[in-house]
Amino acid sequence: MTADPYPGYAWLREHDPVCAVGGPHVAGRMWLVTRYDDVRACLADRRLGSRAPVDPDPHPPGLSNLDDPGHARLRRLVAAAFTPAAVSRLRDRTARTCARAVDSFAGRGRADLVAEYTREVPVAVMHDLLGIPETERAPAADVLDMWYRAKFQQPRDEVKLTELLGYVRKLVAYKRSHPGDDLTTRLIESGALTGDELEVMVMTLIGAGHITTIQFLGTTVLHLLGHPGRRAALLGGDIDWARAINELLRLDSPSHVAEYRYAGEDMTIADARVGEGDVVLLSLAAANRDPNRFPDPGALDLTRDARPHLAFGHGAHTCLGSHLVKLETEIAITTLFGRLPDLTLDIPSGEVDWGYAPTFRGPRALPVTFTPSVSR
């Protein structure tokens, strides 16, 4: 992922909004869609399916790779855990998680905020939601390594996939013998999932619960480090948190491209003739900077009403965890800058290394310095 892909997106929106592209391990044609109206329409178009016509994966598909009615069935099983009311009950636990993470480096005066904060918090929050005690969890770095290499490395890292499946099976087995007031227990007790479906669901939730939030938290910290006046206004209550977070999601969407869509029939997108079986990539990041939808789209305006941005998608596959992402972000940012108000990026912003995995964008590291703070 380049440090700044947005000029390229702008050129495509203007000159080739439904562009034929190449892709690894994809048979047939692939199209990249970049204009807001086209992307939003495609996200809701049921002719574009989420399941590959020929899928060699022997495991049941997860939420993001399944169409209705199967998708609706699985989504209903977990939706109640991600409503605004349910997420609000995680506030105190999330605040404690953020405080412990800051405590781990606050006394040093120096830290890498990605490795020590924006990576640790989302993984811990999702494990808490699933009811996995700390004694049963792998370190966050190991979970991420298993996930990224199993999901994104091409050809797929079968060793890491086996490790990831083994880890998830261990967690599910633990919850079968240690039920509690948590999402995994409710899924088990529902009896609505086969053993394989349950494991894939837990694996999907662990991945979905951290994969975008890590990117978004890191990018948000970077933006706020570079805009101290706006940061002060936000932390001081002069800017609405919900509005600010929506603008940050719009400006730098953590998922630059939605999950693959597969054309179920011949169709036309804008002026492009898309054939049955073709892969369609919907660029959320390009759509969210479409000047025909958002004036001056490259500017950070925390008072802007950025809805309806597409960072969480649109339609049947709209991200279930959107409320959780927003809660985590508000608490993580408030905790971090509240404890360490003089945080300073230790490298020029232009030298930040962007990456993580294909289609996702976030800083790999954020070295900072600050006045040491005594742990609370």
Q: Given the structure, what is the number of helices?
A: 15
**What gyration radius follows from the Cα positions, in whole Å?**
21 Å
Percent helix range:
40-55%
What is the ordering of alpha helices and beta strands? HEEHEHHHEHHHHHHHHEEEEHHEEEE
Shape: globular
DSSP strand tally: 12
Strand content: 5-15%
Give the N-to-C terminal Cα separation. Answer: 38 Å
Strand order of the largest sheet: 1-2-8-5-3
Uncertain spans = none
In short:
Helix content is 47%, strand content 9%. The protein has 15 helices and twelve strands. Strand 1 and strand 2 (30-33) form a beta hairpin.
Write structural notes for this entry.
The chain is of the alpha+beta class and 376 residues long. It has 15 helices and 12 strands. A hairpin with a 6-residue loop joins strand 10 and strand 11. Helix 8 (140-151) packs across helix 9 (158-177). It is globular, with a radius of gyration of 21 Å.
